[in-house]
Amino acid sequence: MRQMVNIAKMVSESWRTLSKEERSVWEEKARVDRVRYEEEKASYTGPWKVKASAFSVQKDPQAPKKPMSAYLSYANKKRALVKAMHPKATNGEISKILSAMWKGAPEPVRQMYINEEARLRVIYHEEKARWLA
């Protein structure tokens, strides 16, 4: 980003140092290009917006699904409990509480979810390899 700023400063400085004759050459090119652009725009009859789905890659519904992370698995199991304890909490607040619970969970509890994720990830990679073959 800083490099772009430096380049813009250099271009701006060189534009200011151009003589009127040198500037007029570039201003004429810009005027001609603007006229060309306006003509092309006026004659264009296609859609002005392209649907995002035209560029997005469709996922194969038969492809194996990635396993949930250890945290997401933990959060899904504890979400109902947290919702019962804080019935007026928003989803964002519940997520913050779940995050704090995960960070404060004893290591054996966290390790149980991490091990389960690792086991499911191995299965996922095996299924994906079979699916791609």
TrEMBL record:
It is found in: Nucleus. GO terms for molecular function: DNA binding. It comes from the Eukaryota. It holds the Pfam family HMG_box_2. InterPro entries: HMG_box_dom (IPR009071), HMG_box_dom_sf (IPR036910), HMGB (IPR050342). The keyword Nucleus applies. GO terms for cellular component: nucleus. Residues 1-45, 64-132 bind DNA. Keywords: DNA-binding, Nucleus. The keyword Cell wall biogenesis/degradation does not apply. Residues 1-45, 64-132 form the HMG box domain. This is HMG box domain-containing protein. It comes from Cyclophora tenuis.
